[in-house]
Amino acid sequence: MIGYRFSQYIPFESQSTFDKLLKLFQELLVYTSGDVPEALSWLTELDKEYQLTTDDYGMADFIQDLIDKGYIQQDQQGNGGFRPSAKMEVAIRRKALEDIFGQLKKTRRGQHNTRHGGRGDERTADVRSFEFGDQLDNLAVSESLRNAQINHGVDDFMLTQEDLEVYETYYQAQMSTVLMIDISHSMILYGEDRITPAKKVAMALSELITTRYPKDTLDIIVFGNDAWQIEIKDLPYLQVGPYHTNTVAGLELAMDLLRRRRNPNKQIFMITDGKPTCIKKGKKYYKNSFGLDRMIVNRTLTLATQCRKLQIPITTFMIAQDPYLMRFVDQFTRTNAGKAFYSSLDGLGEFILMDYKDNKRKRK
């Protein structure tokens, strides 16, 4: 009888021990907000349980390779510790992009085509006759000289406007985005870690925009009792504080940043898990964590209306499933004429990608 005999499956190990440990270490750095000693301590415990290292390559070898390859460096405070280097920060953002937006197909760098031809910022291979107002930067020199030679000859060579041809261009949509991240205490309440997925999404989005859409702009805001702007390099180190949720302060700062941007296309992404619980009245904070306070809600909805009048859509990513809070988000979204997604932590990155691309195509 003809048949098959199966041998024992031996997986193909394409990654070195260092590469496998590096991915785990990067993940742990995000969870520990950049605390290298704590991340290494966790990695050592994982090694004890799952035998991540080999007889030929131990944890000491891995740490030395991290130093030699420039992933970690001595802490400037002089306490003998280590901190992530700039190279590690870039590597973490790239890993977040790969993990969350891995389904992206490779496309032309920074390409956001619209359906509109004419004057734009991206040159094509097509040429047309010169028209008044065309930029000389787009002049097709070889074609123009050839026309002049055909029309006037070599002996009486001259170049007139009728000889000129220019490259056709297409308008490329550009977007200014503000990403708001909630760092109130509720982001780690009840034992749920919601800030780590939020950080990973923010890092992936920042890497996506800066590498694939280089003409776009991205500003990142964190908000608790107040709101303030942070740099992309600060994302891995974000920590939740003993804060309430001052959504009004975050929206006010986001609108101020977008007013300074010249792009006609503007939007706000807001990642949060709770209701607004705080506003500022003069120099004092007005706080109420019980229910939806009418004064706080009205201030928040007023800003949503202002953003709608300025044609700034707000996309809210609600990482909680409380029906009571979802009704408020629905009201906020209708007021702004924006969008809202109620997603689990695992689906958060995919939702952000889908909406970002949709806004690119819709607004012009």
Describe the structure.
This protein is an alpha/beta fold. It folds into three domains: 17-84; 115-172, no CATH class; 175-362, 3-Layer(aba) Sandwich (Rossmann fold), CATH 3.40.50. Helix content is 39%, strand content 21%. It is built from ten helices and twelve strands. The chain has helices at residues 17-31, 36-50, 59-68, 86-100, 141-152, 195-212, 247-259, 294-309, 323-336, 348-362, and strands at residues 72-74, 82-84, 113-129, 165-172, 175-182, 217-223, 227-230, 265-272, 278-281, 284-287, 314-318, 339-342. The chain has a six-stranded mixed sheet, with helices on both faces. It has a two-stranded antiparallel ribbon with strand order 1-2. Helix 4 (86-100) packs across helix 6 and helix 6 packs parallel to helix 10 (348-362). The termini are far apart. Mean pLDDT is 84; it is low at 105-110.
